[in-house]
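Quick illustration, no need to memorize.
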Amino acid sequence: MALKKEVNYFGTFVELVNYSCEAANLLSEIMNNFNPDELEEKMKLMHSIEHAGDVERHIMMKKLAKEFITPIEREDIVAMADAIDNVTDNIEDVLMRIYMFNIRTMREDALKMADIIVKCCEALKEALIEFHNFRKSQTLHGLIVEINRMEEEGDDMFVKATRHLYVSGGDPIEVYGWGRTLHFMEICCDACEDVADVIENVIMKNS
């Protein structure tokens, strides 16, 4: 009788964060080469990335339901999958706000925030690649610290961008739309930090 193949949850976490990185890069590309008339098509592309991540997560959850022994606690596996999924979802939400609020021109500070989101996701991927070795890793803690640092950088950029938005004034509807969009960009950085928090919790539980 063939042995049951062990589920590689740590590998799946990396696959899930790959979708987050893909979504972040797409958002950055759309914003840096902004054409409001292409947003509907770009949203379809973004949603296909988000949906693929959902499918991957559902497959993992289905396997988890049948597993007797797991490398870390079940609730931590679920928390990790949900936290990574939230990163991808929130990135899609940014693009949806750009479309919903009929944004027609791009702001320089928003481009800087998009760059921070990309860097947060890349650092998150590095941490999740190392996560399987969390009991012995010499680099994982530093990667968590770096994600936290970039989240703080995102917070700072959000505050400055929002202040500049209101100081510079302009059309109230546009100001409102950009204010909501910048807020969702900041949420993306928070979501990356949430994944880092799950990693940290697993390390603490198993120390």
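The chain has a mean pLDDT of 93.
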